[in-house]
Amino acid sequence: MTGLSRSATGADRVRRQGASAVQADVLDRDGLLAALRDTRPDAVIHQLTDLADADGAATDRLRREGTRNLVAAARAAGATRIVAQSVGFAYEPGEKPADETTPLDVTAPAARGALVAGVQALESAASEMNTAVLLRYGILYGPGTWYAPGGAATAALAGDANARFIGYVVPDSSVTSFLHVADAARAAIAALDWPAGPVNVADDDPAEGREWVPVLAEALGVAPPKAASGHVPWARGVSNDLARSRGWQPSYATWRTGFASQMADA
Description:
It comes from Asanoa siamensis. This is dTDP-glucose 4,6-dehydratase. By secondary structure, the protein is an alpha/beta fold. It has a domain of 186 residues: Rossmann fold (3-Layer(aba) Sandwich), CATH 3.40.50.720. The chain contains nine helices and ten strands. It has a four-stranded parallel β-sheet, with helices on both faces. Strands 1-2 form a two-stranded parallel ribbon. Helix 2 crosses helix 3, helix 3 runs parallel beside helix 4 and helix 7 runs parallel beside helix 9.
């Protein structure tokens, strides 16, 4: 197994975890072609984001241009399968958790419209591979995420206007599905044997913000914000029935215990 990072530090981190590593930037098409030509993978797992500075536009660009370059390089290197990280919060508004037959929110305006367009571009490009499994993840929490102790969600919940965070931590009736990063990784490996198409990957417990925000705040050691009315129409959560039917199940079945478990990992 070979991991790719655009920085020497990231490549070293991959090696410390027992894999080989190459350094390349997916926005550098020629460099990426060379890297994959040398490693000649059978399959590619695509987990590209650029959220360190809470820059949604940078991640949208990675989804569009980076995925396009990665698919071209993978095909040139002889790979036939891709497992790509998509998102489970790009579905159109609705009253129930979305399943994979639910349309994406293609008429969404402004910033959300850009996110959905980026997701569409990612999934379309990935689908040019012989087999493309599109993992529509819930909101990721756990080590290294915004929702871990000391992460950006802590600052946002504490009212820090300078927090580098573009999540939604309002205790209203908007529904969110969560996913621990360890369960996300397990799904990505399992998906190397799955048939093509989109698959929602989230825990078993879609919940309203007025339920999960206070629990997160307590786990992070900050005061919870006051309860709010209303909801964001597209925030509906997802059903994980398809992923479960393929044998995957979350080790962290609910954020109710998963948030607290982060303290032990801190």
